[in-house]
Amino acid sequence: FKYLVKTIKESYPDVLVSPYVMLGGTDCRFFSEITESAFRFSPVRMNNIELKKIHGKNESIRKTSLVEAVNFYKSLIEKHK
Questions:
Q1: How far is CA 70 from CA 2, 10, 59, in A?
Q2: Exposure string for 15-27, b = 16+ CB within 10 A, e = fewer
Q3: Could you give the C-alpha distances from 10 to 16, 28, 32, 54, 76, in angstroms and in order?
Q4: What is the mean pLDDT of residues 25-43?
Q5: Apex CA 44: angle with CA 62 and CA 31, to 5°?
Q6: pLDDT tens profile 50-76
Q7: What is the average pLDDT across 8-19?
Q8: What is the largest distance, in Å, between two alpha-carbon atoms of the chain?
Q9: Taking Cα atoms as reference points, which of 1, 4, 2 lies closest to residue 43?
Q10: Under the phi-then-psi rule, with left for phi > 0, alpha for psi from -120 to 50, and beta for the rest, what region is 51?
Q11: FRET pair for 75, CA 20 to 30 Å: which of 3, 8, 32, 65?
Q12: pLDDT at residue 15, rounded to an integer
């Protein structure tokens, strides 16, 4: 968790990091048999309008949010090597 928090803070210095309970059924549940270190986390900035569109009609995110998310995952993977 500390590694994840560090990477979040480096990628998103303007946000607060806090654990929370994710109620949705994510694909992460399929990885519990192969790892003890699966985090249910999405590094995507969304406003209230975008949050309401998740899994609905015209689901979308901003391109800038997508680029941020890709850069986050690249950082997470590269630093973990």
A1: 20, 14, 18
A2: eeeeeeeeeeeee
A3: 12, 24, 27, 26, 10
A4: 81
A5: 135
A6: 888 888 888 888 999 999 999 999 999
A7: 92
A8: 38
A9: 4
A10: alpha
A11: 32
A12: 92
Predicted local confidence at residue 81, as pLDDT? 61
Cβ neighbours for 39, distance < 8 A, ≥ 6 positions apart: 1, 4, 28
74: left (phi over 0), alpha (psi -120 to 50) or beta: alpha
- Other CB atoms within 10 Å distance of the CB of residue 76: 19
Find how far residue 20's CA is from the centre of its chain: 13
Q: Residues near 44 by Cβ (< 8 Å), separated by ≥ 6?
A: 61, 65, 66, 68, 69
